Amino acid sequence: MMAVHRPTTIEALCEVVQTAAAGGTTLAIRGGGSKSAIGAPIGGADTLDMTAFSGLIDYVPADLVLVAGAGTPLARIEALVADRGQMLAFEPFDPAPLFGETRGRATIGGVLAAGLSGPRRLSAGGARDHLLGFEAVSGRGEAMSGGARVVKNVTGYDLPKLIAGSWGRLAALTSVTLKTLPRPRATATLAIEGLGPEQAQAAMDAAMASHAEIAAAAHLPASDGAPAYTLFRLAGFDPSVEARCTLLPALLNAHGQLVRLDAAHAETLWAEVRDVTPLMNDRALWRILLPPSHGGGVALGLNERGADWLIDWAGGLVWACHNDAEMVRGMAHAVGGHATLIRGSEPMRARTPFLDPPAAGVARLAERVRRAFDPAGVFETGRFLDQPDAH
Q1: 387 and 283 share a domain?
Q2: Which residue did the predictor score with more confidence, 99 or 389?
Q3: Residue range(s) defining the domain that contains residue 119
Q4: How many domains does the chain have?
Q5: CA gap 128, 112 in Å, rounded
Q6: Cα–Cα dist 20/379, whole Å
Q7: φ and ψ at 76, to 5 degrees?
Q8: pLDDT tens-digit readout, 9-30
């Protein structure tokens, strides 16, 4: 039976990692477990439970900076900053429902390690842009830190950007320093009904090229009697939002009639986009990152092959359900994109790398970086299917 380690201090965590390195044991980092079904099944690794590293450490709303334990639930942090009229501007989401699990399991460390960002990434940047600093323990069993508690930090290497999206292969996060932002005073959503994916892409391209300052743009295909919606979110001060609500219909007149949605309906639709709720089924789920303006064409191709899908980030992200990995990745590669397998059956995950395999040169560089942080391969659990010699 594999062991479960629950360190409560950085010193104890260092000892666990050092012991694993010396004994040839691998450690599977676990917070809330909301993403444990992503990647190849793990059978021979001990569990490194990080839930003890939880709680608010420091929050100065006037400075727009928050420090929290990496094991702190995402929902708790979002509620805390919302109470002060602020937000995590990269609009993270909890992936647990995509696997039939209860919402509320995601931790802030896990969200950052996976680089999960919602619709507002289009205008506010991704998770890596809002991680100012961190503390962690590397695969060497050494305490380390990177970044700073200020928005501008120009000293040394930008380690936070390296850690964000690293999926726990470099270090076990113990605390994170985040940039927060004020919530917009006003928000409005305008929509065009009935467009196909390529028509929607043309409308989103036109909106993004305008002076309307689009905060988010997405497309939901028709489903269960509801029409297709091409969505445009505007945010800011009331006079500015109202002026842009008047401007945008004229700018997009050639693409269809824009209607302003009531707040409740708009919130429901954006939640569907953020949480990918229309794609909660038993098919393989892909997160396809694409160069700008290619989302509509890729979505059309996937639609013709029987996939379910939706478009976010004005075409820069397509979520799709299809069990043919070669087809999905081939379509992404054809336009310079890549596809991540978020959900799949256990046999599929056992044979399909969930991260799109990079070019040989990039793979060698990534391996060198990982070995600098984790020379013994403590965090190489076999989840990524790219470490044939892993323990």
Answers
A1: no
A2: 99
A3: 1-183+357-391
A4: 2
A5: 7
A6: 10
A7: -65, -40
A8: 999 999 999 999 999 999 999 9
